[in-house]
Specification:
The protein is of the alpha+beta class and about 210 residues long. Helices cover about 25% and strands about 40% of the residues. It folds into 2 domains: about 45 residues; about 150 residues, Jelly Rolls (Sandwich). The protein has 2 helices and 14 strands; from the N terminus they run αββββββββββββββα. A hairpin with a 2-residue loop joins strand 4 and strand 5. Helix 1 runs antiparallel to helix 2. The radius of gyration is 23 Å and the shape is globular.
Length: about 210
């Protein structure tokens, strides 16, 4: 019984060590845009959920409050049917080192908007203008942003909320696909220490069982 408890404790220690080794991973938001691979959907698609492709990877766009509509035969331009998009979720099948997008609030009325962006289910959050990369609320015309993942992190979901709303989002592009990758040297060192500790626990457990026999 003690042996089993000790082994579980050792395995937990390894998990904690691995987590500690990846603590430098982060995602940042900046203004500007890069080339990348654009997201394409069938022009004229309408619904609370619309699917598209970034190369061969499926992308799902959805809204809880709006009916979405896709425009364009090239990179898709997505807008709310009422031209005031309150929220938008973008889910990628793959995970990427960077994602870029371009937002446009309603035009013709001096309309501005603020943005709250949650990445990877809330692991990272950004507010524009408060604490974001943009010094003012989103203005008329183009508002281009780039999310960048570092330290073996990756981007796989985006959840936007806008106040009072944006007209459309366009030029959604993705960077390189991130797979599991190879652990960083510091992570390897921590894993080796952890495995060494579990090895010692296993040897001690065998020794105790031999004495008991």
């Amino acid at each position: 019984m003690k042996f089993g408890t000790t082994l579980v404790a050792g395995a937990s220690a390894i998990a904690l060590l691995v987590s500690a080794g990846s603590a430098a991973a982060t995602i940042t938001l900046a203004t500007g845009q890069f080339g990348g691979t654009g997201v394409h959907s069938v022009s004229g698609a309408t619904g609370a959920t619309i699917t598209g492709l970034a190369g061969s990877d499926l992308v799902t766009l959805s809204s809880t409050d709006d009916m979405l509509h896709s425009n364009g035969n090239g990179e898709s331009d997505y807008n709310a049917v009422d031209h005031l998009m309150d929220d938008l979720s973008v889910a990628f099948t793959a995970s990427y080192d960077a994602v870029t997008f371009n937002l446009s609030p309603p035009t013709g009325h001096g309309q501005t908007s603020t943005m709250h962006l949650s990445v990877n289910g809330g692991a990272f959050t950004f507010d524009v203008p408060h604490g974001g990369a943009f010094p003012d609320p989103l203005g008329n015309g183009e508002n281009k942003f780039t999310l960048s993942a570092t330290g073996r992190d990756a981007i796989h979901t985006l959840n936007f909320t806008f106040d009072p709303g944006v007209d459309h989002i366009q030029q959604i592009r993705v960077g390189n696909i991130i797979t599991g990758g190879v652990p960083e040297p510091a992570t390897w060192a921590l894993m080796i220490v952890g495995f060494g500790g579990v090895g010692s626990l296993l040897r001690r457990g065998r020794g105790r069982r031999a004495l008991a026999a």
